[in-house]
Amino acid sequence: MRIVVIGTGYVGLVSAACFAEMGHHVICVDTNAERIAQLRAGHVPIHEPGLDGMVHNNHQQNRLHFTTELRPSLANVDVCFIAVGTPSCANGAADTQHVFQVAEELGKYLPSSCVVVNKSTVPVGTAERVERCIAEQLALRHAAFAVPVASNPEFLREGCAVEDFMRPDRIIIGSADAQSAQVLQSLYAPFLRKNPRLLMMGRREAELSKYAANAMLATRISFMNEIASLSECLGVDVESVRLGIGSDSRIGYDFLYAGCGYGGSCFPKDVRALIHTSQRHGLSSHILQAVEERNTIQKAGLFIKLKLQLGYLEGRRIALWGLAFKPGTDDIREAPALQLLESLMHAGAHVHAYDPVACANVAEYVPKQWLDSGQLTLNAADPYHVLERAHALVVATEWKPFRQPDWKRIAACMDKHIVIDGRNIYDPLSMQQHGFVHVGVGRGIAHSSEAAALTNAA
Ligand SMILES: NC(=O)C1=CN([C@@H]2O[C@H](COP(=O)(O)OP(=O)(O)OC[C@H]3O[C@@H](n4cnc5c(N)ncnc54)[C@H](O)[C@@H]3O)[C@@H](O)[C@H]2O)C=CC1
Ligand SMILES: O=C(O)[C@H]1O[C@H](OP(=O)(O)OP(=O)(O)OC[C@H]2O[C@@H](n3ccc(=O)[nH]c3=O)[C@H](O)[C@@H]2O)[C@H](O)[C@@H](O)[C@@H]1O
To answer: Signal sequence: where (predicted)?
Structure first.
């Protein structure tokens, strides 16, 4: 098939590369000229395991092309994916302006009928509105064809996006016509060989399924974060509670990790968008509002824990491990580390941060004077380097090499032996044995003499 993917971000570029990998002819269109120039020059502008090789190979094989020009890309197109960003508006609603800008252009420039598929996460009713928007433009130029619009929400996770796209848990296709349903079923057939879960439904149902999935996952995280806070008060180790409840097959182990709050480009904005949709329909979104509030509290937790340990922060040297909102990605959108950075900068602390891939994005995002003054330094080369004379180490992202570091070397570098473990990757008792004050999330075990006695006996 001839496919056009509009938007070359995490979703668009991954989808395009994976479709090209299956043998299709794919053109990626983006208004960001710098991004397109980079892609043409063979540089993949986002960090996503497995993506570079796939983009490079398919580009070399002439199956994957990059352009800023939508109009010429549309010749003989069979399927056109919309994968542009839908960030939050100030009132929490999803900002769909890019989606409708694309819809208008498609209506203006499509030379013949094709299936338009919306992959961006959008409010219920958007596919219908996009179809109307295209139809209005077609009518203005007296085009003698119609363009059906389907909804095909994306469920990939950053950090394992290629893997998720190639082997999805399920594919949801929301359509209102036989042509789109058939074309998309055929396009996705090779991705369903291991797991034939293709769910066909209405477009509105597909759109709400996407928000409901993200909101459910965010709810599990906020729920566990709340149990973690209670655990801290009760002298309970939330890690044992996680295992205790995850073993119930009705609950399961996934997405039960307490931490320093969820970030990323989707959970925060999608929870806010669903709250906004509920409110527009006169409903109070009790659960989701609490999910968001809990997450705001959780993100502030790293700073509070640090302050409790150090008393004051002005002039303190803080080592920060991890800037990305999760491991495996360079994405820093709504990352807990950014909120911590801001609080520490205002408190007059000096922060020396290490992240293997997210430093460039942070350097672009933070006020220049933080870096120019040396109050913040960013290091992508050596996690031990940022520990020199530090008064505390904060772990905000659970990159794998952080899991078993050389504690002797760390102790020799640091002025004070305090570790704020925002991702619960260290065992509190062995940290004590290494001579560190360890503050995790919900690790009340340090106060629980019963648990300590049991561990010592084991
Ligand atoms: N990032 C993720 O892991 C996932 C994101 N989604 C959803 O997919 C959508 C896209 O997300 P990301 O890929 O993260 O976004 P992104 O922000 O990484 O990329 C969006 C791209 O669209 C381009 N763009 C904007 N307006 C355009 C226009 N008129 N024409 C052509 N290109 C245009 C931008 O320049 C940018 O390169 C969002 O709705 C998001 O909620 C869904 C599942 C996973
Ligand atoms: O719509 C989207 O954009 C995507 O959002 C999430 O994917 P992603 O944001 O890439 O990453 P996740 O692995 O879901 O993690 C999100 C945040 O939750 C946090 N998290 C995750 C799991 C957990 O148990 N605890 C926890 O705090 C992570 O640290 C991270 O900050 C969903 O998992 C994807 O299915 C969805 O497609």
So the answer is: none
Q: Is 219 annotated as a binding residue?
A: no
Which residues share a beta bridge with 386?
none
Please say if the pLDDT value at position 445 is more than 90. Answer: no
Distance between CA 68 and CA 74 in Å, rounded? 12
Cα–Cα distance, 159 to 383 (Å, whole number) = 20
* Burial tier of 164 (Cβ tally within 10 Å: 0-12, 13-18, 19+): middle
101 lines ligand 1 (CB under 6 A): yes
| pLDDT tens per residue across span 393-444 | 999 999 999 999 999 999 999 999 999 999 999 999 999 999 999 999 999 8
* Ligand 2 atom at minimal distance to the Cα of residue 325: 31
Among 199, 228, 255, the domain boundary falls at: 199
Encoding tokens for residue 147?
A: 């363009």
Print the domain residue range for 123. 2-199
- Tens of pLDDT along 53-74? 999 999 999 999 999 999 999 9
**pLDDT for res 132:** 98
Sign for the CA dihedral angle at 396, 402, 408, 410 comes to: negative
Sheet-wide strand order for 25-29: 64-67, 25-29, 2-6, 79-82, 115-118, 149-151, 171-174, 198-201
What percentage of the chain has pLDDT greater than the value 70?
97
Report pLDDT for 447: 47
Burial of 298 (0-12, 13-18, 19+ CB in 10 A): buried
| Class of residue 113 by CB neighbours under 10 A (exposed 0-12, middle 13-18, buried 19+) | middle
- Asked whether residue 284 falls in the same domain as residue 190, the answer is no
Q: Grade residue 193 by pLDDT with cuts at 50, 70 and 90.
A: confident
Residue 114 annotated as catalytic: no
Atom 25, ligand 1: residue with shortest CA distance: 84
The CA–CA distances, whole Å, from 132 to 16, 77, 137 equal: 26, 20, 9
Same domain, 180 and 257: no
Is 132 part of any known ligand binding site? no
Is residue 326 in contact with ligand 2, taking CB distance under 6 Å? yes
* Element at 273 (helix H, strand E): helix 267-280
What's 397's domain CATH number? 3.40.50.720
